[in-house]
Amino acid sequence: MTLVIGLITGVLFGVFLQQAEVLRFEKQVGAMRLRDMTIVKFMLTTIVVGSVGVYFLSDIGIAEFSPRGLSLGSQIIGGLLFGAGWAIIGYCPGTSIGSLAEGRGHTIWPILGMLLGSIVFVFLYPFVVNVINPIGNFGSISLHGLLGINHWFVIAVLAIGSIFLFRAFERRGL
Questions:
Q1: CA angle centred on 28, ends 46 and 54, rounded to 5°
Q2: Could you give the CA distance from residue 18 to residue 8 in angstroms, rounded to a whole number?
Q3: pLDDT by residue (tens digit) across 127-156?
Q4: Cα–Cα nearest to 132, from 140, 124, 122
Q5: Domain extents in the chain
Q6: I need a labelling partner for 39 at 20 to 30 A (CA). Which of 6, 29, 46, 96 fits?
Q7: pTM given for the model
Q8: For 132, what's the count of Cα atoms within 13 Å in the CB-facing half-sphere?
Q9: Helices 72-89 and 25-32: angle between axes, nearest 10 degrees
């Protein structure tokens, strides 16, 4: 049942990606050039909605939420690899699959690269766990935990800040 729910939510997320037009190459490049904030607005919205959903389900006891530990080594190297791939190809992994589903055949190349990268990662996994993850490992931390405040306060500030940011983007035509 968990896999079915995952499939349904994945398909719905893909539909939302398509409806928001974030699968388009022009939107991807516009985001990288800071000239089109459609992707930023979409992802920030998913972060706020996801935060509300995850913490609500956790608070009522339906789901358990335990964030991964923060490793600066993993975050920096992973972020650089992700960013380089996005800049070179013009798509991130999720949007490349969505674009292929829309009929853009050229996105098969980033998808094959993603699969190849996954295979390489399998072989490098012991190195990542033993060498890279310990670099700057802070364990499981959260903003509300660091500040010693309720998570709903952080989510409210994030939501309100997002609204102001969206309004600023809209005023500038971004």
A1: 15
A2: 15
A3: 999 999 999 999 888 889 889 999 999 999
A4: 124
A5: 2-171
A6: 6
A7: 0.78
A8: 13
A9: 130
